[in-house]
Specification:
Number of helices: 15
Strand order of the largest sheet: 31-30-36-27-28-35-32-33
Number of strands: 36
Shape: flat
Distance between the termini: 108 Å
Structural class: alpha+beta
Largest sheet: 8 strands, antiparallel
Radius of gyration: 44 Å
Helix content: 25-40%
Strand content: 25-35%
Low-confidence stretches: 46-56, 175-189, 209-213, 458-472
Length: 686
C-alpha cells in the first residue's frame, strides 16, 4: 500500500490531502500506436510451485467408454481405491475392472471423489483397436483332457454321381430317401444320426456327387472325421472320385473305400482296386491303411463289415469332445421354411446346445427357439457330434461358417456391429484397386481429349449441342435371371455354374437377384422391372394369376435348369446367314451369242456335282478367286430354257453381268442361303 499526498488550492488557502492506493492502480496508459495495434492479452507469469503441488492440481485425461481399469491407470491410483469411490457415485453400478463407463459425468464424478481434476479428450487409437479385439469372439482354447468325453464320429459319404451313396445310407438307417430325390441324384447335404447294430451312434453326412456341387463336397470334407468313398465296381474311378481323394488328402481325413454294386454282372472289383491304387491310395492288401470293402447297398451285402470298419477307425482315432461351456459348431446347410422361418442344419463340435442359447455365425445371429433332429422331432439338447436343425436365426447363416455361442444378446449385437464394420472395410480395400484403375482410365481419356483440343487450336469447335453418350452394351442381347433355391448350398452351386459363363460379348447374362426361399411378391416386382426370368429350384412358385407378365420356371434337377438357361441364351442370339452348296459345274468353253447388235458371253458347262438351279445364286471362281457372285440370266440345255441341270449334263449358262467373261477351266458354284438360329457356346462342364 502506498501513501500519496495531494496539494490543491481552495480559494486563497493551500490545503494538503493524503490518500492511499495500491500497485494495481498505477497502470501505464497506452500510447496512440498501441491503441491502434491488435489487442494482445498479456498474462502475468505463473508462480513457481513445488512438484507435489503441481501434480495435485494438474488435470488427467478421460474419454468416453473407458474401462474402470483404464481409469485407475490414468488416475495412477490402485484399482481398489477407484472401485471404492464408485460406490459413492450414483449410476456407477458395475465396478468390475473390464466394465465400460459410458457416461462422462460419472467418470468426472469418480475423479472428483478422488480429488482429481479432469480433461475430456478423444480415445487413444490403440485403445480403440483393443476394444475392437474385445468385441469379436473366437473359439475357446483346447479343453483340458479331464473334461473330454467320447463323442460319435462324423462320417461323410462321398463319391461320383449315381454310384449309390444315398442308397447305402438308406440301407444303414432303414429309410428310402433315394426314391424321393429329383432326377435320382442328391442335390443337398443331408446330416443324420444312425445307430449301428452294435449300439454305437454315428453321424452321417450325405453329399452330392454331381459336378456342380464341388463346394458342398469341400464343406463335407472339412466337417468330417472319416470319409467313406463309394465307388461303383462297374465304373471304377471317375471325375468326382478323384476330387474326393484330393479333398481327403488336403484335409488329412482317413478314407474307407466302399466298392458298391458288386451284385451286377459287369462289376470288376480288381480293376477298381488297381485304379484306386494308381490314385495314390495305400490299400490294406498292399500294406497300406485304407480299407476296401466290397458291398451291395441295394441287396445289403457286407454292410455289417462296413459298419465295423467305421467303428474300428473311430475307436483308433479316439474321438472326444468337451460337452461343457459355450457351444461351437459348423453350419452344414441353411434354408428358409415358409412356415417356420430361417433354419440351419449344424453339427455341434463342442459344448451342449440348448434352447435359449445365443449363437453367432459370420454376419448372422440367433436366439435358439427350437432344436430338431433329422426326422423333424424336437430335441431338448444337442451334445457334441450331433447333427441338429436350429430354429431362430435372424439372418440366414452361410453354409460352412463357424457357429459360436455368446453370453447374451447384447454381446451378440456388439460382435455383429464389429464384424459388419470389418466386412465393410475389407470390401473397401478389395475394391480400391478397381476404383484406382477406373480413375486412371478416366484420367487417360481426359488427357487424350485435352491434347486433341489443344492441337485443334483456334479451329476447334466451340459450344454446340453435347453428343448423347450411348452405353456400348445397349445393342448387345441379354438375359436377366433371378435365382431362388431351397437351401443355401443349392443357390451357391447354381451361382458357381453361372460364373463359368464366358460369352458376354455375344449375349450378356445378368444375375439380378438370388436368395434362399420361395418366390415372393418382391421377386415378381423385381422381375417385371428388369424383364427377368425367375428360376425356382425346388421351391414353391406363386399362382399363375399372381405371376402375370413374369416368366417363372420351376426345376428340381440342376442340369435341367442349366439346359433351359442355355436355350434362353441361344434364343437371344441373332440368326446368321448360312450358305448351302447345291451343285458345281466346270466351264468347258466360252462362246458368244448375238442379241441385237450386242455380243453376249455364254459359258458352256458340265455339271460335276449336285444340281444347278436357275433360281439360286452362282459364284464364278478362277484360280481360287471369286470373279462373279450373283444370279443367272439364262440356263439352257440343247437350246431349251430349263430350270435345273443334273449331274453330268452339259448346259449353257448366261450370267446377269455381261461384262464378266467366263473362261475355260473356271468353276461355277450354285448355292443358296438361309437364316439359321445360333447356339450358345457356353459349356458349364457337365
Amino acid at each position: 500500500m502506498l501513501k500519496v499526498r495531494s496539494v490543491y488550492q481552495l480559494g486563497s488557502n493551500l490545503r494538503q490531502r493524503q490518500f492511499f492506493t495500491g500497485i494495481a492502480r498505477l497502470k501505464r496508459r497506452k500510447t496512440a500506436e498501441e491503441k491502434k495495434s491488435p489487442r494482445i492479452i498479456e498474462y502475468s507469469p505463473k508462480k513457481l510451485q513445488p512438484n507435489n503441488v503441481s501434480n495435485a492440481n494438474s488435470a488427467i485425461d478421460i474419454w468416453r467408454h473407458m474401462t474402470v481399469s483404464q481409469l485407475a491407470k490414468t488416475l495412477q491410483r490402485p484399482l481398489d481405491d477407484v472401485q471404492e469411490a464408485m460406490l459413492y457415485v450414483r449410476g456407477a453400478d458395475n465396478i468390475e475392472a473390464a466394465a465400460k463407463l459410458e457416461d462422462l459425468k460419472i467418470i468426472q464424478e469418480i475423479a472428483k471423489k478422488l480429488g482429481v481434476k479432469t480433461r475430456v479428450v478423444a480415445a487413444p487409437e490403440s485403445t480403440a483397436e483393443d476394444e475392437h479385439k474385445e468385441r469379436d469372439v473366437s473359439p475357446r482354447p483346447p479343453a483340458p483332457p479331464e473334461l473330454l468325453k467320447p463323442r460319435p464320429p462324423v462320417v461323410t459319404v462321398m463319391g461320383h454321381v449315381d454310384h449309390g451313396k444315398t442308397t447305402l445310407l438308406d440301407s444303414l438307417r432303414g429309410a428310402d430317401v433315394a426314391a424321393g430325390e429329383a432326377g435320382g441324384i442328391t442335390q443337398h447335404i443331408g446330416a443324420f444320426t444312425v445307430t449301428l447294430e452294435s449300439g454305437e451312434r454315428v453321424t452321417f453326412l450325405d453329399t452330392p456327387g454331381h459336378a456342380a456341387f464341388s463346394a458342398m463336397r469341400a464343406r463335407g470334407a472339412v466337417a468330417t472325421d472319416i470319409i467313406v468313398l463309394v465307388v461303383a465296381a462297374e465304373d471304377g474311378v471317375m471325375a468326382q472320385t478323384r476330387e474326393v481323394i484330393q479333398l481327403a488328402k488336403e484335409a488329412q481325413v482317413p478314407i474307407i473305400v466302399a466298392l458298391n454294386k458288386i451284385d451286377k454282372p459287369e462289376a470288376n472289383i480288381e480293376k477298381s482296386k488297381r485304379e484306386l491304387a494308381q490314385m495314390g491310395l495305400a490299400l490294406e492288401e498292399h500294406g497300406g491303411d485304407v480299407q476296401v470293402i466290397p458291398i451291395s447297398a441295394l441287396k445289403g451285402t457286407n454292410l455289417q463289415l462296413l459298419a465295423e470298419a467305421v467303428s474300428t477307425q473311430a475307436t483308433l482315432m479316439g474321438l472326444k469332445a468337451d460337452p461343457t461351456g459355450l457351444v461351437e459348431g459348423i453350419v452344414v446347410e441353411s434354408k428358409t421354411d415358409p412356415r417356420r422361418g430361417k433354419l440351419s442344419t449344424a453339427i455341434v463340435s463342442r459344448g451342449t446346445l440348448r434352447k435359449g442359447s445365443v449363437l453367432l455365425s459370420g454376419l448372422s445371429h440367433a436366439k435358439v427357439r427350437g432344436l430338431f433332429d433329422h426326422n423333424g422331432q424336437p430335441m431338448t439338447e444337442a451334445p457334441p457330434g450331433t447333427p441338429v436343425e436350429i430354429l431362430g436365426w435372424r439372418e440366414l447363416p452361410l453354409a460352412g461358417e463357424l457357429i459360436l455361442e455368446v453370453e447374451s444378446e447384447k454381446k451378440a449385437h456388439a460382435v455383429m456391429k464389429y464384424r459388419e464394420h470389418q466386412a465393410q472395410m475389407e470390401k473397401i480395400e478389395s475394391s480400391g484397386d478397381e476404383i484406382r484403375k477406373k480413375e486412371e482410365e478416366h484420367q487417360a481419356k481426359y488427357r487424350a481429349e485435352r491434347e486433341a483440343r489443344r492441337l485443334a487450336g483456334r479451329f476447334r469447335v466451340r459450344g454446340g449441342q453435347r453428343v448423347k453418350q450411348v452405353d456400348p452394351n445397349d445393342g448387345c442381347p441379354r438375359v436377366s435371371v433371378i435365382i431362388k433355391g431351397d437351401v443355401h448350398g443349392s443357390v451357391e452351386a447354381l451361382l458357381d455354374v453361372l460364373e463359368t459363363y464366358n460369352s458376354n460379348d455375344r449375349c450378356r447374362l445378368d444375375i439380378v437377384h438370388y436368395g434362399v426361399g420361395n418366390v415372393t411378391e418382391g421377386d415378381l416386382e423385381l422381375a417385371k422391372a428388369f424383364n427377368a426370368i425367375i428360376y425356382a429350384f425346388s421351391v414353391e412358385t406363386p399362382q399363375p394369376k399372381a405371376a402375370k407378365d413374369v416368366t417363372v420356371k420351376s426345376f428340381n434337377v440342376i442340369y435341367h435348369l442349366i439346359d433351359d438357361l442355355k436355350e434362353q441364351l441361344s434364343s437371344q442370339l441373332p440368326s446368321v446367314e448360312v450358305e448351302e452348296q447345291l451343285g458345281e459345274a466346270n466351264v468347258l468353253q466360252q462362246f458368244f451369242i448375238n442379241e441385237g447388235r450386242k455380243e453376249i458371253p455364254v459359258a458352256g458347262c458340265r455339271c460335276t456335282k449336285g444340281v444347278l438351279k436357275k433360281s439360286q445364286r452362282f459364284r464364278l471362281l478362277r484360280d481360287g478367286e471369286i470373279i462373279y457372285d450373283g444370279a443367272l440370266e439364262s440356263m439352257r440345255h440343247l437350246k431349251n430354257e430349263v430350270d435345273s441341270i443334273k449331274k453330268d449334263v452339259e448346259c449353257g449358262l448366261r450370267l446377269k453381268d455381261t461384262k464378266v467373261l467366263p473362261q475355260a477351266g473356271d468353276t461355277l458354284q450354285c448355292y443358296t442361303t438361309h437364316m439359321e438360329s445360333q447356339q450358345t457356346d457356353w459349356d458349364p462342364g457337365f
